[in-house]
Amino acid sequence: MSVFRDEKILQRRYNLKAVIPNRGFRALLLYRIADYLLRKRIPIPPLILTRIIQIIYGINTDYRANTEGGVLIVHGTGTVIGFGVKIKKECIIYHRVTLGIKMLGHNNSFPEIGKNVILGAGCKVLGKIRDDSIIGANMVITFNVPENHLVKFSHTNYIEGLIL
Question: Exposure winner among 12, 45, 134, 164, fewest CB in 10 A?
């Protein structure tokens, strides 16, 4: 658990030399441009930018997703962020993470990711995750995770516990 916290501190100390080559940073930059254009009611360029992100970076981020500042995508390849997803500040998202819809036809069933959340590689999130929580690698989250919780596998069982 302290490894995740130490890495989170390191991620915050990124300088421009480390951030600019990061594919997740560049993908989110293009996403923000697409979001801005969409809000200005310019419909076609956001679709083109979204396709560029998919082809060049292997990250499928819908331009209608709501992502706040300070979100960091590490590696990013295979990451999917659906159109109704809400991600708050200072989240770290590793590669092959899927943030998708829980039930087709229900707009309110998209994930909401709280502040300071870490999403481990390969996790699939279909529920809400509250602030300061950590989701371990390859977890499938179909339930709501309370604030300050760690969800990970331990051999054959999953463990959900309070982060102290």
Answer: 164
Is 110 within 8 Å of 125 (Cβ atoms)? no
DSSP 53: I
> pLDDT digit string (tens) for 115-133?
999 999 999 999 899 999 9
Query: Strand 124-125 and strand 140-141: pairing?
Result: parallel
Q: 0.70 cut: is pTM over it?
A: yes
Alpha-carbon gap, residue 123 to 143, rounded angstroms: 13
Alpha helices in the chain (DSSP H): 2-12, 16-19, 23-39, 44-52
CATH number at residue 29: 2.160.10.10
Query: Structural domain tally of the chain?
Result: 1
Max intra-chain CA distance, the chain: 50
- Rounded to whole angstroms, the Cα distance separating 97 from 119 reads 7
Domain range enclosing 60: 2-162
